[in-house]
Specification:
Layout: E1 9-12, H1 18-32, E2 37-41, H2 46-55, H3 66-86, E3 93-97, H4 101-113, E4 121-126, H5 131-139, E5 143-147, H6 153-166, H7 168-171, H8 176-189
Parallel strand pairs: 1-2, 2-3, 3-4, 4-5
Helix pairs in contact: 1-3, 3-4
Length: 191
């Protein structure tokens, strides 16, 4: 990452240490002369983190509630945008991996209000989920991605299971994604 954000580190915001880790890494990038790049996610290993902490008798490193995790995510996001505001020529790269509409609104509103370089920011959602977020972001000119987890089923199933739980309105046949899917189907069939 000497000239551009190529390799992105992942900051899992269900970890209590995420804001401190982010700040340390941004400062280290400045001191060492490389471009900071990060993927911001909520996290996918709640059960493993809690069970490992219990097994080895240490305090769990993750937030106790989803609300605390959401607050941490937004805090980390705003810290990155503050860095972009204070250093407009920065080449940093940030990818916000989230299906949370509130967090996306926090990021996009801040970018627009502060007239930040949106080219340094991207958004990503899991393929097949949260199209009601991805499509408007893309239409508004933001870089967007759909991603597909890759690996052995035994290693990816817990991740996918957690995403399904978080996005249960899709599985229940309710919510904005289903409405978008029906509208797209009607458009394609010209109904």
């Amino acid at each position: 990452n000497l000239d551009a954000p190529i390799i992105f580190n992942t900051y899992q915001c269900y970890m209590k240490i995420a804001p401190q880790r982010l700040r340390n890494d941004i400062n280290r990038a400045k001191v060492e002369g490389w471009v900071w790049a990060g993927k911001i996610v909520r996290g996918a290993y709640l059960n493993q983190e809690r069970s490992t902490a219990a097994e080895y008798n240490y305090v769990s490193p993750i937030h106790e509630t989803k609300e605390d995790t959401d607050e941490c995510y937004n805090t980390v996001a705003l810290e990155i945008l503050r860095e972009l505001e204070e250093n407009p020529a920065s080449k940093l790269g940030a990818l916000f991996g989230t299906h949370n509409q509130e967090s996306i609104e926090v990021v996009t509103k801040t970018i627009v209000e502060k007239d930040l370089n949106a080219a340094r920011v991207s958004f990503a959602q899991l393929l097949g989920m949260a199209d009601h977020l991805t499509v408007p972001l893309a239409r508004a000119g933001f870089h967007t991605f759909k991603y597909v987890p890759y690996g052995p089923v035994k290693e990816t199933i817990q991740y996918l299971s957690r995403r399904a739980q978080e996005n249960s309105s899709i599985l229940a046949g309710t919510g904005p994604d289903e409405k978008m899917q029906w509208l797209e189907l009607r458009r394609r069939l010209r109904l």
